[in-house]
Amino acid sequence: MSAPTRTPTGRNEVTSEAARRRTFAVISHPDAGKSTLTEALALHAAAITSAGAVHGKGDRRGVTSDWMEMEQARGISITSAALRIEYQDRVLNLLDTPGHADFSEDTYRVLAAVDCAVMLLDSAKGLEPQTLKLFDVARGRGIPVITFVNKWDRPGREPLELLDEIEQRIGLRPTPLNWPVGIAGDFRGLVDRTAGNAYTKLHRTPGGATKAVEEPVDAARAAEIEGAAWEQAMEELALLDEIGAHYDAESFLAGKSSPVLFGAALPNFGVSHLLRTLITLAPAPSARADASGTPRPVDAPFSGFVFKMQANMDKAHRDRMAFVRVCSGRFDRGMVLTHAASGRPFATKYTQAVFGAERHTLDTAYPGDVIALVNAQALRVGDTLYDGPKVEFPPIPSFAPEHFAVARAVDSGRYKQFRRGIEQLDSEGVVQVLVSDVRGEQAPVLAAVGPLQFDVVRHRMEHEFRAPVELSHLDYSVARRTDAASAPVLHGLSGAEVLTRRSDGELLVLVHNKWRLRVIQRDHPELLMEPLLAGG
Ligand code: G4P
Fold it and tell me: Which ipTM did the prediction report?
């Protein structure tokens, strides 16, 4: 169903607009430099005039802004925003992933909404635990990964050693697009393997607050000015040629190889090459499979799915927003869409593009774009919205929780508010809610990927639903999927408990720890204890 004011659009417009878009996320471990890189990308694309305007940390304000008081107090960003960068007739949609070490499911869900990921590594640290977890999710979703080795201006590891680590630990074949001249910490410049080994010497600008000065230098002069560093780089480049470490589109798009770039986000070294790589190599939005597995072409009527819910971003308005990734068709503000889960119409009068805490009213969007729907109380994470004949995308999988707590209303007189609040947080995917007859309705078990999710629950239950909660931590750290046949046996074992996940009716068994799990599996091989997604 469409609003009568909708502008009729041709198929070609949608196809060509989709082709201009690149929708991606940065996956990294905290402190690898994600915020700095985001700033630098926006700076290079001239979206902002001076680095620092995007960052949400410290006294720098901007895109990954801290919406909730709690976030401000902690100086971290829990929410996911989308940043739109226009560059050389392309539109880059950078979906933010929360960067705190204390992981939440939001980070994983963002990867359901992107077409490509930039894996950001600290040159001194290589692959870190959170990078590995996120990479696993990206791999599970078949998302192509571009690698950016950051902080080359600081002492770090050998470039060949880092490539080796990527290949050995995660089985991703690295294909460097550029190569550093000068070791980590003594960074002289970059050789562009995609441009006949053209050399660019880098000159630092004070404070790194503006674009680095990149000076093209020919090989003869480079050999003269860089001396031994140049010779070493040439030897390494010859080695790369010998082992055939060349970019290969097919294996990159299949998630088997990864183009690698070396650089330093803070002084803005090599960031422009990453931008060029994103617009030339990262895939544009393409047909997405619906729940029945049928690919829906980008020029089909409008469709999209909710990958994130966000409440109370603006205290003055007390609203609830749904972030929707557009999969097909053109979106015009005011369209009346259909909510696939309920079959009900959904009016989109109040649609916004979100640029951090700033909101702009959005009139048109195309595949790859992110739209934010205001007052989206009826929507849940994973829900599909469409125009025309019905389509539904597969649900976004729930991830393996590792932290569990029983929730109770502090004031039993406010049980109604308590129940409503827990239901709402469940539908937004803030935590998973598990119930069992044994524990009863009044004491649901909350399950989280990271304990920070519990702080969000506490805060919102008290301030939004006026029903403060008491959370008692449970001594479980592993969750597995089970079935009705295994449940009664598992429930009787010590160190295990079976509950039902409210959102999808799945039976989960919680176990104290991996050791106990192994013992149960050994003693009862007949019982179903299937791993859940990511880290389970
Ligand atoms: P994150 O979002 O991934 O957590 O990392 P963030 O960008 O905040 O960067 C973490 C620290 O690493 C910051 O320093 C940042 O300035 C530094 N950094 C990022 N990229 C580079 C780089 O290419 N070279 C160097 N030398 N440092 C880099 P901080 O002192 O912890 O924070 P801040 O006070 O600068 O915000």
Answer: 0.97
Question: Known binder of ligand: residue 99?
Answer: yes
Residue 34 Cβ inside 6 Å of ligand 1? The answer reads yes
Q: Which CATH class is domain 403-531?
A: alpha beta
pLDDT band at 101 (very low <50, low <70, confident <90, very high): low
Identify the CATH number of the domain defined by range 16-49+75-281: 3.40.50.300
The two structure tokens encoding residue 390: 């019905």
Tokens of 475: 């001594």
- Look up residue 273 and give its two tokens: 């090459």
Mean pLDDT of the chain: 85
* Type of residue found at 303: S
- Residue 54 is given by DSSP the state S
- Annotated binding-site residue? 192: no
Query: Is the minimum distance from the CB of 114 to ligand 1 under 6 angstroms?
Result: no
pLDDT class of 375 with cuts at 50, 70, 90: confident
End-to-end CA distance of the chain: 41
The region of weakest confidence among 6-20, 98-112, 228-242, 349-363 is: 349-363
The domain ranges of the chain are 16-49+75-281, 291-386, 403-531
User: Residue by residue, what is the 3-state secondary structure of 468-487?
Assistant: CEEEEECCCCEEEEECCCCH
Nearest to 215 by CA among 228, 225, 227, 229: 225
Give the distance (Å) from ligand 1 centre to CA of residue 67: 21
DSSP for 169-185, written as a single string? HH--EEEESEEEES-TT
CATH 3.40.470.10 fits 291-386, yes or no: no
Query: How far apart are the C-alpha atoms of 369 and 192, rounded to whole Å?
Result: 31
188, 229 in Cβ contact below 8 A?
Answer: yes
Stated pTM of the model: 0.84
Q: 28 CB less than 6 Å from ligand 1?
A: yes
